[in-house]
Design a protein that fits this description.
By secondary structure, this protein is mostly helical. The protein has a domain at 27-68: Winged helix-like DNA-binding domain superfamily/Winged helix DNA-binding domain (Arc Repressor Mutant, subunit A, Orthogonal Bundle), CATH 1.10.10. The chain is built from 4 helices and no strands. It has helices spanning 27-38, 44-51, 55-67, 104-110. Helix 2 crosses helix 3. It is extended.
């Protein structure tokens, strides 16, 4: 499907969050995020060991990142080919009228697990 991006990972629909306030985070937070992106099931004690923090301190940092919306959830990375989905499609949608990435229909589609990325592109087609 693709290769995970390096931290900070750009959300798959970045413009949807454009109006939200950024959260200041440091190198330790970046390291925690990198480890969580690599293994979302890592135990907090192991995470703390790897970043050289106590379990309580790393738990507090993870909770702060979750509360700030930097971490929006944890999930499984599914390999579509193993489920019989051998095609990855890029679909162009040309809506009429005031389309934005905050349009209710767009926000609804973004929540579907089979839609992995949404982009707003400007310019003419080839």
């Amino acid at each position: 499907m693709g290769v995970p991006a390096a931290v900070p990972k750009e959300p798959r629909h970045a413009r949807a969050y454009a109006d939200e306030t950024s959260v200041a985070f440091d190198a330790l937070d970046r390291q925690i995020l990198q480890l969580l992106q690599t293994d979302g099931r890592i135990k907090l004690s192991e995470l703390g060991r790897q970043v050289r923090l106590s379990p309580a301190a790393v738990t507090e940092r993870v909770r702060r990142l979750e509360a700030a919306g930097v971490i929006s959830g944890y999930g499984a990375h599914v390999v579509p080919g193993r489920l019989g989905y051998g095609i990855q499609a890029f679909i162009r949608v040309d809506p009429h009228g005031g389309y934005t990435l905050k349009h209710p229909r767009t926000l609804e589609l973004i929540q579907r697990p089979e839609i992995t990325e949404v982009h707003h592109v400007v310019g003419e087609d080839c």
